[in-house]
Amino acid sequence: MRTRKKAIVLLSGGMDSATTAAIACKQGYDVHALSFSYGQRQHVELERARLVASALGISDHRVQNIDLRLFGGSALTSDIPVPKERSENEIGNGIPVTYVPARNTVFLSFALAFAESIAAFDLFIGVNAVDYSGYPDCRPEYIEAFERMANLATAAGVEGKGTFTIHTPLIALTKAEIVKKGMELGVDYANTLSCYDPVNGKACGRCDACQLRLKGFREAGVSDPAPYAA
Question: Helix (H, G, I), strand (E, B), or coil: what is residue 118?
Fold first, then answer.
């Protein structure tokens, strides 16, 4: 019996990471999911990540505890207010206060360590460079740079045991295209939460992430099944 290739998927509980996990599963990988409890105000997303992993049949889902509140500097990890009801132009202009300093670098570093420990050379992350909020660690050039570093900074890479690849299947898709892709793969978006500032476990409907998500569902011609507080 042929052994399936292992892959690490960063799973936040949002629509992008859920779709990315579904893609990795569809491609036949033995998926190991990794989520983070990092002091985020949207901590409820971890419950959604567990639901997504279960629905996709991912048996190895790990939650790593780190506390980025130690540094702050973001509306997601400090008392800085989360921007609400911004226009598309405002959302697309500059780096917002919801950017968490070096978050994807921290997450990918943990994922890389996890991957090397189980001889997995494929890492999946749901970054998006089309309908995104100006985050510098969602750009293709950042992913390419991290991939080069991964193969330079690991024993597995240096000893030629394998080549690490960072997969970004959503990076060039619009939110509407992501929704359609996920629906094709049977992703239950009711299990997901993209909100930066949830209210009693429900999406606020007003932050940048909610607005981009709702816009994607509208343009895809379907209703968002996730619960909203407003």
Answer: coil
